[in-house]
Write a structure and sequence with these properties.
The chain is mainly α and 585 residues long. The protein has helices at residues 16-33, 45-75, 81-95, 98-110, 114-120, 122-125, 128-138, 144-156, 158-170, 183-188, 195-209, 213-233, 239-246, 251-263, 265-278, 303-314, 319-330, 367-386, 398-401, 403-419, 423-457, 465-480, 493-496, 510-528, 530-543, 549-554, 563-583; strands at 173-176, 179-182, 334-335, 347-351, 356-360. The protein is globular and about 75 Å long.
């Protein structure tokens, strides 16, 4: 099947089970709101905690099933009015839980012997990390009426602005050679072997953005303004500090990683300049050739070929990874091809309520698309590990979210390099990997700088579309440097990336760099001791929902607060770049 199968959740919006579950969900939310009186005193705290968590598990499982289903339906057809209305109904109802959740979390602050209660109860002990984290975060909560109002207003604020960006980009008609195509289709042309196709597609893409740039700029300003206001009210020094707390990651870890990344920017610029020369550019690589294939390998892969290659190489790591990927291909977990109304890019949704994942891609047949599939199936493998935990312990954070995906990419990339039979093929595969590294280190760093500048600027002003383009160009110049042609950058990278358009998830950029470099460090450890590493790796993944980033890394003996670790991972990337430079002398 080329489209995913969602019937494991529901057979449609008119399905009786879907209607029954919606009604059950609405009633459960109303029942939950009636628990306020339980948290007026701390008497019988243990019984109250058990009862609340049991209800929370049941409600969370049901909400997960409903929201995942509706979101997935909407992601393949952003103009599906029924899905949009259902999303609005469900999220609006979820906001009604804010008051009781705020009361409950503040109540945790009053339970003086909370840790003692947790340790004495085997059921509560399973949720120790979550409970203590909730108690810590409770100090940042405003009063319950204000928290409820914020949650309700966000549905008509940042959530709606984010949906507008998704709608405009997924339905944008791009005029290329007199023919209308989707944004996903024209962006995929950046990987074409024909240089004229890449160049023409790039300028067609930029030209198309002019139709929606003002609207999307308004969306971005509105979302970042909302986040600035709320994070300040909660006592955060900045939205970045809030993002770090949500990531369960220390500033020390982020600073160590960013510092190492900045130190290694020159090696990426050397690669970009070499690629530019190979493609006939003397002043650095133009953005439209950033993803140009090298090595004269022009093979197109079918879904079946992609499947066979991924399964073969996943099998070298562990039977569990192979078996999961086989189910993904055979049981309709994947929606493969681009189409009008379908969101761009790729993602994986871990659906705890059915113990399965669903993967969206925009597959065109390049080797890069195989890597994307491997990446998303890595997320699915993370899901397999986390499904063994309670749904309340399955909420892993952004940085570790990219670990298993990048690890699976590495498995397939390394196998492809080993299988290469010619110099051209090796150059092609090696350069494809370095392309990805460059995106995850250099481009991600530019996105980090851009988002930081938008947040800082929004304290005093509103940016028009031209100012946002200038901020993006400045960020790209700072990271890509002379590696790219300074006159042929991409001023609209803020418009086409959905990661900026969430009120509840700021700075969804540095986690990708964390994921890449952390996964490289893990892969290096795997090569040193394959037999003992796999169970340790699975333990790490399953623990990511109930540990800080730093403590999760300690499970495999890694200290992510130290710059030396990040340098050691960047040195692995440098080895690939050095080999590329040598092969292309």
């Amino acid at each position: 099947m080329n489209n995913w199968d969602l019937t494991k959740m529901y057979a449609g919006f008119d399905n009786e089970l879907y209607k029954f579950d919606v009604d059950r969900f609405l009633k459960m939310v109303d029942d939950s709101k009636n628990q306020e009186s339980e948290f007026q005193t701390t008497e019988n705290a243990e019984k109250k905690l058990v009862r609340f968590i049991e209800r929370e598990i049941e409600l969370t499982e049901l909400a997960d099933k409903l929201l995942q289903y509706v979101s997935l339906e909407q992601s393949t057809n952003s103009q599906n009015v029924i899905a949009l209305k259902a999303l609005n109904q469900l999220y609006t109802k979820v906001t009604e839980l804010t008051r009781i959740e705020t009361i409950y979390k503040k109540w945790l602050l009053k339970v003086e012997n909370l840790e003692e209660i947790i340790e004495s109860n085997s059921f509560l002990k399973e949720f120790k990390f979550r409970l203590l984290e909730q108690r810590t975060k409770a100090s940042r909560l405003l009063d319950e009426d204000t928290e409820t109002l914020i949650a309700q207003l966000s549905q008509n604020g940042s959530v709606s602005w984010g949906r507008l960006q998704q709608l405009l980009t997924s339905t944008l008609a791009v005029d290329l050679d007199g023919k209308e195509i989707t944004l996903s289709e024209v962006r995929n042309m950046a990987y074409e072997s024909n240089p004229e196709v890449r160049k023409n597609a790039f300028f067609a893409e930029l030209n198309a953005y002019k139709k929606i740039e003002q609207s999307v700029a308004f969306s971005l300003n509105s979302i970042k303004g909302e986040v600035n206001t709320i994070s300040e009210k909660r006592g955060f020094a900045s939205p970045l500090d809030q993002a770090l707390e949500l990531s369960r990651m220390s500033k020390q870890t982020l600073d160590a990683m960013i510092s190492a990344m900045e130190e290694y920017l020159p090696m990426f610029r050397d690669y970009l300049k070499r690629k530019g020369l190979l493609l006939g550019h003397k002043d650095g690589l133009p953005f439209y050739d950033l993803f140009a294939p090298l090595g004269n390998v022009d093979k197109n892969f079918s879904v079946e070929e992609a499947r066979d290659y991924i399964l073969k190489n996943f099998g070298t790591f562990s039977p569990r990874l192979h078996e999961m990927a086989e189910r993904a291909f055979n049981d309709g977990w994947i929606d493969f091809f681009p189409k009008k109304g379908k969101v761009g890019g790729a993602f994986c949704a871990n659906i705890h309520s059915i113990k399965e994942s669903r993967v969206l891609t925009n597959f065109k047949g390049s080797f890069g698309d195989i890597i994307t599939l491997a990446h998303e199936l890595g997320h699915a493998y993370h899901g397999e590990a986390i499904f063994t935990e309670s749904i309340l312990n399955s909420d892993y954070t952004m940085p570790v979210a990219e670990t298993a995906s990048t690890f699976c990419e590495t498995i397939v990339n390394k196998a492809a390099l080993k299988d290469a039979t010619s110099k051209d093929e090796k150059i092609n595969l090696l350069e494809s990997s370095i392309q990805d590294y460059t995106q995850v280190i250099v481009d991600i760093l530019s996105r980090f700088y851009f988002e930081k500048s938008v947040f800082e600027g929004r304290k005093t002003t509103i940016f028009d579309e031209n100012e946002l383009k200038d901020l993006m160009l400045d960020a790209q110049k700072k990271t890509y440097g002379d590696g790219l042609d300074q006159n042929l950058l991409h001023p609209y990278m803020w418009l086409c990336k959905s990661h900026y358009y969430s009120g509840g998830l700021s700075y969804y950029n540095f986690p990708y760099a964390f994921g890449l470099l952390f996964a490289k460090g893990l892969y290096s450890a795997y090569l040193k001791d394959k037999e003992n590493f796999v169970p340790l790796y699975d333990k790490l993944l399953s623990a990511t929902g109930k540990n800080t980033v730093e403590d999760a890394a300690k499970i495999v003996g890694i200290d992510v607060t130290q710059k030396e670790f990040w340098i050691s991972s960047l040195e692995l990337l440098k080895g690939d770049i050095d080999e590329f430079l040598k092969l292309t002398e």
